[in-house]
User: What shape does this take?
Amino acid sequence: MATAAAHRTARTGADAPDTATDTAALQHAFDTAVAAEERIEPRDWMPDAYRATLVRQIAQHAHSEIIGMQPEANWITRAPSLRRKAILMAKVQDEAGHGLYLYSAAETLGTGRDELLDKLHSGRQKYSSIFNYPTLTWADVGAIGWLVDGAAITNQVPLCRCSYGPYARAMVRICKEESFHQRQGYELLLALSNGTEAQHAMAQDAVDRWWWPSLMMFGPPDDESQHSAQSMEWKIKRHSNDELRQRFVDICVPQAASLGLTLPDPDLKWNEERGQHDFGAIDWSEFRDVLKGNGPCNEQRITQRRRAHDEGAWVREAAAAHAAKHARATGTTTTATTTATTGTTGEARA
Amino acid sequence: MTTTDWPLWEVFVRSRRGLSHTHAGSLHAPDAEMALRNARDLYTRRGEGISLWVVPATAITASSPDEKDPFFEPAADKPYRHPTFYEIPEGVQHL
Amino acid sequence: MTATVPATTAALALGDDALVLSHRLAEWAGHAPVLEEEVALANIALDLLGQARVLLSLCGDEDELAYLREERAFRNLQLAEQPNGDFAHTIARQLYFSTYQHLLYAELAAGEGPFAPLAGKAVKETAYHRDHAEQWTLRLGDGTEESRERMLTALTALWRYTGEMFQPVAGLDADMALLETRWLESVTAVLTRAGLPLPEGPRTGAWSAGAGRQGLHTESFGRMLAEMQHLHRSHPGATW
Assistant: This one.
């Protein structure tokens, strides 16, 4: 299989340690580089677990971008003004682009996009659970921009300093582009909040539905988070789930007030002593339920993704066949054939 | 399932005249023409570039990290290649 | 800026083409055959929406025109409203339309009429749309047996909507007969390179010559508008 070969190439393209001493030396060099805030680059030696963690995280992130297109694309054809329609189209397009940047970053680790998509389609890799919630009204587009993208940005800004170079660079690009996403959502909600009674109610309803799932986006509480400690040590992660969640809550409270909308948490209040907001308990049973596949849209999202991929197969095959014919005819070497990515791991990128 | 994964291309963008092409990222495309078009759509949709290169990822030969020391360290101990190595009396201009 | 009456007729025709085709292309979001194509189709859709907004604004309020007109008041070509079908249908529609649009805007840009400034920008956008359609026509026509079959079917199915593009439009200062000749030459050349025959048969429906331009549309268009307009219409007078 192409991807396994690619993975091997990736490994041997770096160092293939012969002895335990070599491994220890390499491990030491890696640890020193990470500790010194240096970036790890594709061809550097890295621990297998570091590589696996990155692939898992970057893939999940990429999958979230492309599955995340669906709830918003749901409203493109019904956008209520041409200005809003253009904005939403550009935003959903950006998400496809972000997915692409991230799949590219994952490929530098020796795992091809096809393999990652396969894992998404077969449920072996996950995407952010937030996208298993439905977009029921136009205001949901605003709530996603403000809250979901807001939470994502809070999560992602520290990733721009992630120890793995290609991931960090992809995140810099993504964060730059994301800032319009959050602002358009906020502006959209503001227009609704200041609009007619029905529009205001629509905005409040959306915030009521999206607030808690947005808080869940930061992942389980620190004491239950499986991967956190190691990821922090590797500087893949910079802040704990609870830290980021708190930061997000503190950012949102005044923003909600400016919107003239309330956040659906009776326990939300300023804590003078901590200098932060207290907020109510999160329903983690819902989180786990959605994660397990029992959310309102899990089935639907994956089905649509799989269908788009399957229905596009003949197009991808046609282009590959055309390229192969053309390459034969002109004698060029860059052919698109089946399994053409074998060995094409993007390792050259440094 | 048959895979027809398109090859990987590295994309280089010249952001404006006077600057060199810089690596922007990568993408998949069946052939060079499509790679160029995909690169245009993906990496210059906010006016980031005025010229693009796409290179098949397989065509790039990179130095290996193993060779880091022999490749790059010898350059580190030749400070006389840098202008700051030289002492010039104060007040001497245009040097 | 307000345009003269014939110019308004023309702006509405061109604006509706762009608006409606943009909508159809936007329906691909999340469904494209490959991620790179998600980005490409969205770019084209955004260019067209931009053109539509400029053109409709020459005639009045862009949102009133887009959201509050009935089906029979739309002046777009029937070609532009045809459903996406499979990717081959979308590419065939793009090939026919963007070739026409590019030739038309090139002519308008060269002239001194009211559309010259808009056309100057649009001609660059449509050159890219045309190139995108041609590239894909070549790959689908000369790809696999299946892609060739699908492309043939699509080209043939949409052929009967291509005659309408060259009906004269009041206020549009373009030589439609010459445009048609160039269009045929161009499409023939692309199809030849792709190893595809030019479809046979009439280029207009039995009673539909010039139909879209006069407000006669195909059945699917009504449903498209229902979806596009329902939210806006549900909140009369609201701002968004």
Remarks:
- Chain C has a mean pLDDT of 94.
- The interface with chain B takes residues 34, 36, 39-40, 43, 131-132, 135, 139 of chain C (CB under 8 Å).
- Residues 116-141 of chain C form the longest helix (26 residues).
